[in-house]
Amino acid sequence: MAFELLTPDEMAEADRLAIAAGPVDGIGLMRWAGGAVAALVLKRFPAVRTVHVLCGPGNNGGDGYVVARLLAETGVAVRLVATGAPRKGSDAALAAAECAIAVEPLAAFAPETGSIVVDALYGAGLSRPLDGDVVQAITRTAAAGVPVVAVDLPSGVSGVSGEVLGNAFAATLTVTFARKKPGHLLYPGRALCGETIVADIGVSDATVAATAARSFENDPSWWRPHFPSPAKDAHKYSRGHVGVFSGGPSATGAARLSAMAAARAGAGAVTVLSPGASLVANAAHLTSIILRRSDTLQDALAFFDARKPEVLVYGPGLGAEPEVGRFALELMSVAEGRFGALVLDADGISSLSHRRAAFFEVRKRGQPALVLTPHHGEFGRLFPEIAANGSLSKLERARAAARRAQAIIIYKGPDTVIAAPDGRAAINTNGTPLLATAGSGDVLSGIVAALLAQRMPAFEAACAAVWMHAEAARRFGPGLIAEDLPLALREVVAGLSG
Ligand SMILES: NC(=O)C1=CN([C@@H]2O[C@H](COP(=O)(O)OP(=O)(O)OC[C@H]3O[C@@H](n4cnc5c(N)ncnc54)[C@H](OP(=O)(O)O)[C@@H]3O)[C@@H](O)[C@H]2O)[C@@H](O)CC1
Ligand SMILES: [K+]
């Protein structure tokens, strides 16, 4: 699949393997990379008068020398600006030697209206914050308002984390090679890349696979084969039964949103487990969803034994009181032989922050399958050490939390990351600000639960749910509130099942 994400180190490994396999050597890859960028500049900016090509000291600069040479050969006016000569004997030095254009110093660089800038200063090798003339070049480029085409990454954006080191170009177009890097998809990097195009430079799929990359861009193409479609002889319980715990009388809506979403996402039966005090409120709003009283663990156990739900959703609307955390732990302790998976959301996560030691102890068993859906604040409460580790990207933080809790983590945000304890992780890219609306997280929990109940493998189910949730929001469009999402899912499910 072409949806692997390669860290700069994994990309360097892929380059090494590709060169070792031959026939292309290092300068060959560089010529191929520079050629792809030059072709895209000509295609996207056919009427451009002047192209400023900014070259750094490493191989990113080497790509820049190739771009400059090729554009000049087609008759484009090229101004070549460099931060210094590439290291003697390097591929970049070879590329520079092939480029006969006079080099201008970066300190004097100021692009004029009508020109464009090709940023080949720093890419995968960015190792510290940008400063001095480079920052001035970024400021002048922004002030001129001219388009920037970034080679591999906008200089200043970390390919590992998407973070800005010091300062960064804001590109119109970023051309990267072989595969995207996490920094193209994690914010703020994602916003600074503009459109990101992946150019083929002859690194084969087998070579990428040999790097053992464990990160992916979330995309239906790789989880769709696992997407459930009901068997011809299906009955409601064979299509999966989801139980959703409701909050008290003034907080019942969250559970119903989750329940409706689970039903729309294909669960054959959905039960809302309601405290006695909330029964009337829930009964007034539920039709196809089953309603059952549950005030105590004994009530819940009686339900499990009688109705055999596959998956439970615990958290939406429950409040972050200590007893909520205690009940979550009890649910995990009694799961064996009763239900297969638990989705913990919202208050179900926050309430565990006071019982972290007990939670991690219970999770050592790895049962039941657990999906946690924290946003940034909830993540920080349950995994404070991981959240505080500034050296980790969001992708790595989610991965570390998944290992720690032996759970699938859906670390929500504009760049939601889904991570599994086995090291796989995906970054979602179809998110929309429309989802920043009350109750939208409850809907996501319901979708995850429905897919798990239909026996979709947990990591794929979580990735699918995140994608479907965003897709439903996009299809509905402006004016969306959480109540609209379950119905909007219908079309999304139909598209995936067809
Ligand atoms: N054959 C291949 O491998 C292929 C690679 N390809 C291309 O190579 C790129 C990666 O090349 P790369 O590894 O040379 O790193 P690159 O981004 O040029 O920077 C390293 C230099 O920058 C310096 N430096 C870093 N940060 C700095 C700062 N803040 N301020 C100042 N200086 C700083 C750093 O100095 P150092 O840290 O060593 O002191 C070093 O000198 C990749 O993005 C792609 O475009 C393609 O051609 C396909 C084939
Ligand atoms: K760059």
TrEMBL record:
Residues annotated as binding (6S)-NADPHX: 59-63, 123-129, 152, 254, 317, 375, 442
EC number: 4.2.1.136, 5.1.99.6
InterPro entries given in the database record: Carbohydrate_kinase_pred_CS, CARKD, Nnr, Ribokinase-like, YjeF_N_dom, YjeF_N_dom_sf
Reaction(s) this enzyme catalyzes, per UniProt: (6R)-NADHX = (6S)-NADHX; (6S)-NADPHX + ADP = AMP + phosphate + NADPH + H(+); (6R)-NADPHX = (6S)-NADPHX; (6S)-NADHX + ADP = AMP + phosphate + NADH + H(+)
UniProt-annotated binding residues for AMP: 412-416, 441
Cofactor: record remark: Binds 1 potassium ion per subunit.
Keyword NAD: yes
Positions contributing to K(+) binding: 60, 119, 155
One Pfam family, short name: YjeF_N
Keywords (A to Z) from UniProt: ATP-binding, Isomerase, Lyase, Metal-binding, Multifunctional enzyme, NAD, NADP, Nucleotide-binding, Potassium
Domain (YjeF N-terminal): residue spans on this chain: 11-209
Protein transport in keyword set: no
Annotated ranges, domain YjeF C-terminal: 219-496
Cofactor needs: K(+); Mg(2+)
NCBIfam families in the record: yjeF_cterm, yjeF_nterm
Subunit (UniProt): Homotetramer.
Family: In the C-terminal section; belongs to the NnrD/CARKD family.
Job description of the protein: Bifunctional enzyme that catalyzes the epimerization of the S- and R-forms of NAD(P)HX and the dehydration of the S-form of NAD(P)HX at the expense of ADP, which is converted to AMP. This allows the repair of both epimers of NAD(P)HX, a damaged form of NAD(P)H that is a result of enzymatic or heat-dependent hydration.
Name recorded for this polypeptide: Bifunctional NAD(P)H-hydrate repair enzyme
Name of the coding gene: nnrD
